[in-house]
Amino acid sequence: MTGGDSEKYPIPTKTKEQLFYIQRNHNRNTIIYDANFDKNGNLIKNNPINVYWIRYEEQSQKMELRTIEKIWAYGVKCSKIENAQNQYHVKLVADEDRKLTLKQNNPFNASIYTIIAQKYSQLNHIYIFADNSGFWPKVKYIELFGKDVASGKNNYEKIIINK
Questions:
Q1: Closest CA to 159 of 20, 51, 4, 26
Q2: Nearest to residue 21, comparing CAs of 146, 159, 151, 154?
Q3: Distances (CA, A) of 78 to 6, 39, 42, 137
Q4: Which residues neighbour 82 within 8 Å (Cβ) at sequence distance 6 or greater?
Q5: pLDDT tens digits for 74-101?
Q6: Nearest to 124 by CA among 8, 23, 4, 5
Q7: pTM of the model
Q8: How many CA within 13 A on the CB side of residue 8?
């Protein structure tokens, strides 16, 4: 799958919990979004997604998000979908317009879905390119990488931000 600078970044080791990850042009540190399961393998209703850093710039150590990062940048808001077992609407706090759906397939197995290039897709990762010269980074474009559910083929979309 092709797309911008994201090909130069480390690929996090895939775990059974991993839903997707975000990488940025600022550095190689990566934000991981994992399904949060209880001891029976079901999504935890009040906290179905665990978000944290892998700090590749600092010996690849795992680190929880800071409160400000959860609120303004990389946190998620999840709400249970009524009449759907183990399914949630998910919103990234930085882009509440993008609709994501978390679905549990089996015990200890879940995936996250969104529209990529006009196709219903399983999301794999996101790359964010931002201008970091100001007080707050200004996002210039976002790249979405996933797999088209209907065809099983990898797909990609680049979204230019005109702000």
A1: 4
A2: 146
A3: 27, 20, 15, 25
A4: none
A5: 999 999 999 998 999 999 998 889 999 9
A6: 23
A7: 0.92
A8: 7
CA distance 161 to 43: 33
Q: How many CB atoms lie within 10 A of CB 28?
A: 15
Q: Which helix (H) or strand (E) holds 68?
A: helix 67-72
Give the CA angle between residues 142, 143, 148 to the nearest 5°.
140
Rounded Cα distance between 157 and 109, Å, is 26
Q: Is 51 exposed, middle or buried (0-12, 13-18, 19+ CB in 10 A)?
A: buried
Task: Say if CB 79 and CB 87 are below 8 A apart.
Answer: no
**pLDDT > 90? residue 58:** no
